[in-house]
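Good morning C.,

I know you're traveling, so I'll keep this short. The sequence:
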Amino acid sequence: QGQLVESGGGLVQSGGSLRLSCVASGFITMNFDLAWFRQAPGKERQFVASITWSGGSTSYLNSVKGRFTISRDNAKNAVLLQMNSLEPEDTAMYYCAARVRGGAEYNRWGQGTQVTVST
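The tokens, ready to paste straight into the viewer:
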């Protein structure tokens, strides 16, 4: 099945930036659609952004459009999430996920990295 490992989370002030990274092992990400989700305490998991296996198409949660950018680095078998203009509402555990290209569900998940935005 392989493994996904996130990094780059932390504590940042409102208006600041963070860059999340997710590196895969045990499978080749270039054959997979990749995505970021987040979950805040007491809330359901929420889609944040996705990028197709080819990198030709991206999709974003409305509230992060213009602030977050998803990209992939196939050479490093990784997916990245650049987060700018962070807001306290962005505080959550962030997870990366993968699905075989064209698949219906994301079925490979990382353990998450915590992002906390202070006022």
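Safe travels,
E.
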